[in-house]
Amino acid sequence: MTASGYDALKAEIARVYGTPAVVIDLDKVDANIARLQAACDAAGVANRPHIKTHKSPELARLQVEAGARGITCQKLGEAEVMADGGIDDILISYNILGEQKLGRLGALQRRVRMIVAADNPVTIAGLPQAAEIAGRDLEVVVECDTGRKRAGVETPGEAVELAKQIAGSKGLRFAGFLMYPPEDGWERTQIFLDTANAGLRDAGLEAGIVSTGGSPNIPNMGKLKGATEHRSGTSIFNDRMQVAAGVASLDDCALTVYATVVSRAGAERGILDSGSKTLTSDKGNLDGHGYILEYPAARIAQFAEEHGFLDLSASNDRPVVGEVVRVVPNHVCVVVNMVDRLVTVRGDKLIGELPVAARGMLG
Amino acid sequence: MTASGYDALKAEIARVYGTPAVVIDLDKVDANIARLQAACDAAGVANRPHIKTHKSPELARLQVEAGARGITCQKLGEAEVMADGGIDDILISYNILGEQKLGRLGALQRRVRMIVAADNPVTIAGLPQAAEIAGRDLEVVVECDTGRKRAGVETPGEAVELAKQIAGSKGLRFAGFLMYPPEDGWERTQIFLDTANAGLRDAGLEAGIVSTGGSPNIPNMGKLKGATEHRSGTSIFNDRMQVAAGVASLDDCALTVYATVVSRAGAERGILDSGSKTLTSDKGNLDGHGYILEYPAARIAQFAEEHGFLDLSASNDRPVVGEVVRVVPNHVCVVVNMVDRLVTVRGDKLIGELPVAARGMLG
Q1: Which of A240, B69, B131, B329 is a good FRET partner for A120, with 20 to 30 A between their CA atoms?
Q2: What domains are defined for chain B?
Q3: How far is A289 from chain B (nearest CA, A)?
Q4: Separation between Cα atoms, residue A124 and residue A102, nearest integer Å
């Protein structure tokens, strides 16, 4: 793409939508979807992309059409939107608790295949309520922690105990294990899985699903013997954190924020109209809050809610007031969550918009 | 309020809305609105609250009914929603640039009194387009930087030059100065203002409006001789940053996030169902990502998008899986921006919901 091509597109987006605008290049999205599917195929695991990144049934359908077995959601509200959008095989990688949510889960399970995660007896004790509403068995995977210290039981013994609780619960079916291995934790994860599987055998059970996760783990797919599925969210768009992790190039980043330089009150500084309410304060361990494609040496040093503070001291080229630039965000999943609509383009051509249907909800 | 009162309310909110739910106590909102108005009255400055915090025309109307002269917005989209909601005196404390926005600004100015800020000649050069569409003069204040290094001209001389440019532009009226003094920068701000005013007199101009800003600056109102208005956003809800700044107590915090403990995989740790997509990564300079009213010694140490990592090592009392807690966020303005609806309560009584009407928009 020539710079002048983007100049015309930037002017058009500013004219039609104004800035800040959150823009995805569907050509890059298509390529990213295909690349993930090919990587899963090559590793011999099913693809179950995590839709928390895009929250769009349209994009989920593209993922399924490309070969994904189903999708992953982090929230029940996301799963409801995806089921309404025609997705019929949904894993919620989260403990679902409370009567209200169990009722909604049951209603969903009546319509589509639902799999949910659990890492404790309280969650499992509630899930039969959902199965009863659904009128059929609910598949439950046990979430295992192999080093991230997030959710998930810490030992194979606990995992087997929960598997037995699931298998012994009316309306529930033990479906397997869910893991989110640290990028350097695959050996430990293998030992965990092998030990847990041995425990399952003693109990007459089997893990039909062994689900791993994470876009930075795409190069690690295939390392865990026994893995059956992988959950990757960010790779559909990619971002500065994925580039830093070495799993994507800047050119693979499908989402950019189109922002306007609104102030240049000092020679070495300026203000973008994109602050923490657009790019978010999710910084990762990176320097600055985004990468400006037109001014790679400019640094988004700090945020107010609608102000991105530009440090231009290291940049020989400096933008003028009114100029529109494209910013690759540090963490794309939270940026999508800030807006009701994404603007869609293909290369330098404006296509239209795409609702971020599964955002903004309570519960 | 007794703990048992909140137990019933927490159960009701979980049953009706699910968690995480972003909840405001309208009794506290009323008290906070009244307190800000009284402080402005006592300082002899008009109250022009910043609606970026709540993004709700209903709450803006309450502020105007309590005595506010008008409101402040940071985005044109916010101003449009507020005008639709019946607010007729709106300052946008931001450089408005580009044909699309100038057209929208002109359309707004046709309906209600609009004042906009500018800190550079490019912005001012565009504004007559809006005035022409409006068919009447547009008031413009010059944004001045007295130490925050955000937007705003850095010297009184530049401020006067821009005032002259405005006064000499067809359809524009120089309305005064907009400032956002650092909390410790009032002396410097006074010198800036006095010098700029002297320059204005030489040019035959006068600053009808001298607008100051910031909720942490509420105790400083009245310090700047010549100030006419103050813009305060956060004080309608307050948050942990306001408490840390010494301008509010925890009891003044009207907004809490109702969150469920979904995992307790280790003795000293747990997971809340509120992560960076609910409480946001805006941390301020505080320890941890929020204050849990029921477990003050628990620390929200880290976030994933839908996980709040609880460090319970310093807490003798520890929550169980399924328990609902109330979290005072670090920065309330960005939390409101994450959801389409706020749940409203009065004390321990559930009232209903309030749309966050001015959020999620592009541009």
Answers
A1: B329
A2: 3-25+240-355 (2.40.37.20), 26-236 (3.20.20.10)
A3: 12
A4: 11
